Amino acid sequence: MLRIGVVGGGQLGRMMAEAGAGFDARFTFLDPTDSPCAALHGRHVQANWNDSAALESLAQDSDVVTFEFENIAADAVAHLASQCPAFPPAKALETAQDRWAEKSLFRSLDIPLPPVAKIDSQSDLDAAIAEIGLPAVLKTRTLGYDGKGQKVLRETKDVSDAFEELGSVPLVLEGFVDFDHEVSAIAVRGRGGETRTWPLSRNEHRKGMLHCSIPEPGHPLQALAEDYISRVLTELDYVGVMAFEFFAVEGALLANEIAPRVHNSGHWSIEGAATSQFENHLRAVAGLPLGTTERLVPCAMLNVIGALPERDAVLKIPGTRWHDYGKAPRPGRKIGHITVLAFSDEQLSERIEAVEKLLVNDLG
Ligand code: AMP
Question: Distance (Å, rounded) from C-alpha 210 to C-alpha 327?
C-alpha cells in the first residue's frame, strides 16, 4: 500500500487517484471546498492550501505528498517538504506562480521566448509598449489561468487604462506572437533524474482556454522541445510530471509557460499512451521505475467546458471515452473531457468532427 497526499482536490487529483488504483494507493486530498471532485476516490481534508496544521497532518499521514494545484505559498511547501518527501520541489511551484520568475528562468537557460517586460505601473506599461509595440498581451504575474487575468492590447486606446483595468497588480507585457500553432511538451522526471517525454501535443485554444489536444508523434520540433524541457527539469532538480507550453513559429519554439503538474493537454495519454501522465507522475514521486510514453494509436482530447453534451450520443461515436468530472456546470468551467481514439489519422479527423458537432461548450 502506498499513501499519497495531494494538495488540491480537483479533476487532476481525481485522475491521479484513478491511475493509482493499480498500485493499491490510498489518497488524501487537501482542499478548502465542500465536496471536491477528487473526494470520490479518497479521503478529503477540508482546509486551506496554506493551513500549516492541515499540511503537517497530511505529511504525517502520507508516504509522499504531491500537488495538483500550484498556487500554494512557497514557505508552506518548504515546511511540508521538511516533514515528508514532497514533489515537485518548492522552487518549481514558486517559479511557475510568477510569470516574471518563469520568464527569467527561460532566459537564464537560453530558451527563446517572446519579448517581455515587467510592469508595475502605467508608466512602465507606456515605456514597454514603446519598445515592444502593438499588438501585445498584458498578463497578471500571479494567479492567471485559462486566459484569465490577461488582455490583448491592439490599439493605442487599449493601453491608456490597461494597468488599472487589470487591477493595478504586478503584470508582464508580452509581444503578441503570430504563431503557426501551439504545442505542449509533457515530460516526467524520476527521483534518480531519469526523464521521459510524451509526443508533443498540438493544442487549440478558444478564448484562452484549451479546446483540443492532439498528440503528434514525429513532430519536427520534438527534439528541440525535449531539449528545452530537460534544461528546466534539471535546473529545478524536478521530480514528477511537468508541462511546457510553446508557440511554434517558423520552425522554432518560443516558450509560453510551464505547469509544475499533470496538465490538461496530456489527458489523451490516459487511453492513448503506453503510460499515462497520471501513472507516471505517481511512479516518479513514489520512486518507482517510469513507464514508456509512446502514443499507442491516433487520438485526441476535447475539453467539455460549461455544459455537458448529450452523453449517449457521444458514446455512440466509435472510439470515444467519456470523462465527467462530476463538477457543477458553470460557464467557463472545465467539467469533463472526451478522448477520441482511432486507427488512422483520417478516421480520427472524422470522429473529432462528429464529437465537435455534439459539444455545447459555454466558455463564459
Ligand atoms: P496563457 O495563460 O499565458 O497560457 O495564455 C492562454 C492562451 O492565450 C495561450 O495558449 C495562447 O493561445 C494565448 N496567448 C497567450 N500569450 C500570447 C502571446 N504572447 N501571443 C499570442 N497569443 C497568446
Answer: 18
pLDDT value of residue 46: 97
Task: State the Cα–Cα distance between residues 184 and 203, nearest whole angstrom.
Answer: 7
Do residues 77 and 86 touch, judged by C-beta distance below 8 A? yes
The most distant pair of C-alpha atoms in the chain lies apart, rounded to whole Å, by 60
CA dihedral 81, 83, 85, 88 (to 10 degrees): -20
> Which residue carries 483520417 as its cell?
346
Per-block mean pLDDT, blocks of 10 residues, the chain (364 long): 96 98 96 96 95 94 95 87 94 95 98 98 96 97 84 95 94 97 98 98 96 98 98 98 98 97 98 98 98 98 98 98 97 98 98 98 96
Taking the CA of residue 139 as reference, the ligand 1 atom at the shortest distance is: 3
115 ligand 1 Cβ < 6 A: no
User: How remote is the CA of residue 139 from the centroid of ligand 1, in Å?
Assistant: 9
- Pocket of ligand 1 contains residue 176 by CB under 6 Å: yes
Best of 203, 256, 258 for a ligand 1 pocket test (most atoms within 8 Å of beta carbon): 256
Ligand 1 neighbourhood includes 256 CB (under 6 angstroms): yes
Helices 90-97 and 99-108, interaxial angle, to 10°? 110
* CB of residue 254 inside a 6 A radius of ligand 1: no
The reported pLDDT for the residue numbered 21 is 95
Ligand 1 atom closest to Cα of 114?
19
C-beta 208 within 6 A of ligand 1 = yes
Q: How far apart are CA 65 and CA 37, in angstroms?
A: 19
Q: Give the model's pLDDT for residue 321.
A: 98
Q: How far is the CA of 5 from the centre of ligand 1 (A)?
A: 32
Rounded to the nearest angstrom, the distance between the alpha carbon of 51 and the centre of ligand 1 is: 32
CA 165/CA 122 separation, integer angstroms: 10
Query: Is residue 116 in contact with ligand 1, taking CB distance under 6 Å?
Result: no
Cell numbers representing residue 321 in the block: 471515452
Q: Which domains does the chain have, with CATH numbers?
A: 2-86 (3.40.50.20), 115-175 (3.30.1490.20), 181-358 (3.30.470.20)
Kindly give, in sequence order, each residue whose CB lies less than 8 Å from that of residue 19, ignoring residues fewer than 6 positions away.
Answer: 270, 276, 278, 279, 281, 282
